[in-house]
Amino acid sequence: MKNTPVLNNKLPLVAIDKNLDKLRDKVMFPEKLEKANKMLLTANLPKNKHVN
């Protein structure tokens, strides 16, 4: 049990590439986004009973 890794470290497990920031506001698939938004507007979602 001496060689078991410590899981309580605070280092991130995944390194995120900073070059992805340039794609933050760019819409990659505008047709699919438009279709998804239309589906969300016409979907019959259940009412939320826990509204404050």
Spans with pLDDT under 50 lasting ≥5 residues? none
Based on DSSP secondary structure assignment, what is the total number of beta strands? 0
Query: What's the SSE pattern?
Result: H
Mean pLDDT comes to: 82
Q: What structural category arises from helix and sheet content? A: mainly alpha
Figure out the total of helices.
1
Helix proportion range: 25-40%
Task: Please supply descriptive tags for the structure shown above.
52 residues; mainly alpha; 1 helix; 25% helix; flat
Report on this structure.
The protein is mostly helical and 52 residues long. Helix content is 25%, strand content 0%. It has 1 helix and no strands. It is flat. The mean pLDDT is 82.
Topology:
Elements: H1 30-42
Short description:
The protein has 52 residues and is mostly helical. The protein has one helix spanning 30-42.
